[in-house]
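Worked example 3. Consider a protein that binds flavin-adenine dinucleotide.
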Amino acid sequence: MHDRILIVGGGIGGVATALACARKGIAVRVLERAPVIAEVGAGLQVGPNAWRALTSLGVIGRLERSAVLPRRAVMLDVTTGEEITSLDFGPGFVSRYGAPYAVMHRGDLLTALIEECKATGLVTLEPAKEVVDLTQTAAAATVRCADGSTHRAAAVVGADGLRSTVRRFLLGEEAPLVSRYVVYRGTIPRPAHAEDAVMLWVGDKIHYIQYPVRGGQVLNQVASFASDRGDPGADDWGTPEELAERFAGVCEYVRDGMRSLDTAKRWLLHDRRPAAGWAQGRVVLLGDAAHPMQQYLAQGACQALEDAVALGEAVAASPDDLPGALQKFEAVRYPRAAAVQQVTRYFGEICHLGGVPGTLRNHVLGARTATDYGHVDWLYRAHSDDAVPALPQLPAHLNLYPHELAREIR
Ligand SMILES: Cc1cc2nc3c(=O)[nH]c(=O)nc-3n(C[C@H](O)[C@H](O)[C@H](O)COP(=O)(O)OP(=O)(O)OC[C@H]3O[C@@H](n4cnc5c(N)ncnc54)[C@H](O)[C@@H]3O)c2cc1C
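Given these inputs, the predicted complex is written out as structure tokens:
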């Protein structure tokens, strides 16, 4: 069997890439190791950069009933409950970025992408196919699956997430970096008093998020804190008891919401340092396989969606030179994704300040207005392929990776 494009991984990045290629008339096969192609039951923030990508993929129509367009994002002090600053998502925001800010359920997004893929008639989705081996020659790339089947293609796309098998073949065995922060998630029916906003409460090494999903019927919640007990992933690390202790002094609103967190499952947070080399011969990485990032800017999936559109365009522009197309894709996407990977760490540090630095954060951010978009222009604005995005200047001495732990922890 010889495919034109073979995608390893049926997450948001892989399925969006399949759709991007199909929109250009290119047939694609997606191999997903899970028995069913599905997303975890949690919310997703979709910035205007990713909404534009979804628009160009033609899936907005399928999201209209489930996606919520919040009025604003608000940062509040987790102890006092007082508002620190906000970002207005009103008409000025929408016209500046050519798209709204949206929040949605991951499952709703993946379903919309899958439905559109099916409608093209050009995408074959194959669950229960775990890729375990990869080889390539000048003419083709071949993957082997755990069930013994092999698939040959003119190009292979590794969209297989944080612990990407395809990445291992391109860039070697480096474990992802483990953060000391643990996450608990949960959803609750939306109370009448909940604001139609992305709410972020911040404080000393903790944060809490709430926003509506599923047409506004449900609130998605995330609580996170830095555990200092033992090693991330150990039984005594980041436990529900520690969650209760660390959030003991929070404001009443957060305390109320936390009662409905699902404490049966905790999430470890990972990322990697930016590393080039995503495109090698007929194989390329994208999404978390290429540039996993911490979640503080809510951009991991958004960057995967930008990747999808860029890859579809690169492949369609050079159908007779796929290795060249993959190189061009990396040249366009690497500087952008690397900047987001780094700045998201920086923003996480700001959120988690306590004591005097936390008071200073509140004071400095409190001075900005809700329509001051200066800090987010670099992230949300459209960049043409040949323009180098204007990146925020980080102090040269800033150590962005102060607490990293490079160990494989599941
Ligand atoms: C707490 C938290 C909150 C977040 N919030 C946001 C947010 O609000 N907005 C946002 O944009 N991002 C957010 N993210 C990031 C986002 O979830 C990820 O960046 C995104 O899901 C990555 O998509 P992906 O398709 O690249 O990888 P994945 O979603 O990991 O998909 C990879 C797929 O590949 C499959 N696979 C793996 N190995 C193989 C193999 N060998 N063979 C075949 N298939 C394989 C997997 O089963 C999986 O289905 C958040 C992350 C976390 C942890």
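Take a moment to read the result before moving on. Residues 56 and 309 are 8 Å apart (CA to CA). The longest strand covers residues 177-189.
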